[in-house]
Amino acid sequence: MSLAFSFALIRFALSHTRAKGVTTSSPFSFDSAPPCLTRTASGTRRCEQDSEDEGEGDPRLPEAPTPRLPDTLCSAPWARPATLEGMSAAERKTLRERWTSAELSSLRTQLSRLSSVVPGPHRLTPSWHDASAGATDLRELQAGSLGIAIAHLELSNVDASGLVGGLSISNSTLTHCHFDGAKLTAHTRLEGSLRACAFTGASIPQASIGPEVSDCTFRDAKLRRLRAVPGTVFSNCAFDGAELSGAEFTNTRFIDCSFTGAKFNAATTFRGCTFVGEAPKFGKATENGTTIESGTRIEPLAG
Predict the structure, then answer these.
(1) What gap in Å lies between CA 171 and CA 176, rounded to an integer?
(2) Element (H, E) at 51
(3) Quick check: is 98 in a domain?
(4) d(CA 271, CA 257)
(5) Is 72 domain-assigned?
(6) Distance (Å, whole) CA 217 – CA 289
(7) What does the alpha-carbon distance between residue 286 and residue 268 come to, in Å, rounded to a whole number?
(8) CB count, 10 Å around CB of 52?
(9) By CB count within 10 A, which of 28, 97, 226, 299 is most buried?
């Protein structure tokens, strides 16, 4: 049999096989390609075209693009209103103008009634409050010289950024509350349990604070003559860039707190304090009986 005749028979056999819909199983055919994989939030799975019915469809078609997961995942337990940073002067003025005398009076009445008759947790409801929102919007609160008093309350997810005036917190628990950029009058009380609260850039002169402060930030805050209640414990708190001239800490325990760029002067005193983890550079501050310990870092409160 001639070589040309042999090739002719092979071509005839192949064309006859394709006509009947039979697929060859060459190791180089697309039929032997591995199933496509798709990345999902929970891991990697087979594409639907493979998992539903293998062999159906044209395997030579390009795979669908892999879905892109978000760059960041929001772990905050509440949806905070728009921050004041970056707002225009007109927008901030609109927020301030909400605080009429009637609105402020209503807020004070709520605080008084809740503290006396209702067990926590508590929720404040200004007239613009959205029940479906996860946060209470008290931004640009104009508290005046009389201020507001938070006593025997359990509040969470409150945004009081930009608060101006007096503030007294006593025997209360505040969680995920924001006072960024607040301008508070002298002798403010921040006494109780403060958890994951923010006072970034706030001005809080001659305030008293404690006895429990955890996962809070006081970055770039003006805390001149701050007085910590004796025996206060600060854990996972940031005082980076804070002004602490004249601050007084007695028998205070700092656990994994940061003080990068914090400002002290000769009137700043640390008496009988304990630092677990990082200790500040005392500089001119008065330091007496301070203990520095090494310890295991405490994981901060989520959000």
Answers:
(1) 17
(2) helix 48-52
(3) yes
(4) 17
(5) no
(6) 26
(7) 6
(8) 10
(9) 226
Q: How far apart are CA 243 and CA 303, in angstroms?
A: 25
Dmax of the chain from CA atoms? 113
Sorted by sequence, the CB contacts under 8 Å of residue 291 that are 6+ apart come out as 273, 274, 275
Domain residues for the domain of 169 are 89-293
**Total count of domains within the chain:** 1
In whole angstroms, give the CA distance from residue 59 to residue 229.
71
Query: Which of 153, 158, 155, 154 is closest to 135 using CA atoms?
Result: 158
Residue 146, in any domain of the structure = yes
Structure tokens at 142: 């104009």
- Distance (Å, whole) CA 133 – CA 199: 22
The encoded tokens of residue 261 equal: 């760029």
pLDDT digits (tens, 9 = 90+) for 230-272: 999 999 999 999 999 999 999 999 999 999 999 999 999 999 9
Looking at mean pLDDT, say which of 31-35, 40-44, 260-264 comes out highest: 260-264
Q: CB within 8 A of 49, min separation 6: which ones?
A: 36, 56, 57
Query: Which residues fall within 8 angstroms of residue 41, CB to CB, at 6 or more apart?
Result: 69
- The span from the CA of 14 to the CA of 6, in Å, is 13
> CA-CA distance, 191 to 210, in Å (whole number)?
5
Q: How far apart are CA 242 and CA 239, in angstroms?
A: 5
Higher pLDDT, 241 or 49: 241
Q: Residue 130 is which amino acid?
A: D
Question: What is the C-alpha end-to-end distance of the chain, expressed in Å?
Answer: 83
Residue 66 lies in a domain: no
Which distant-in-sequence residues (6+ apart) come within 8 Å of 200 by Cβ? 180, 181, 217, 218, 219, 220, 221
Q: What is the pTM of this model?
A: 0.70
Pairing of strands 154-159, 136-137: parallel
Query: Can you give the CATH number for the domain in which 144 is found?
Result: 2.160.20
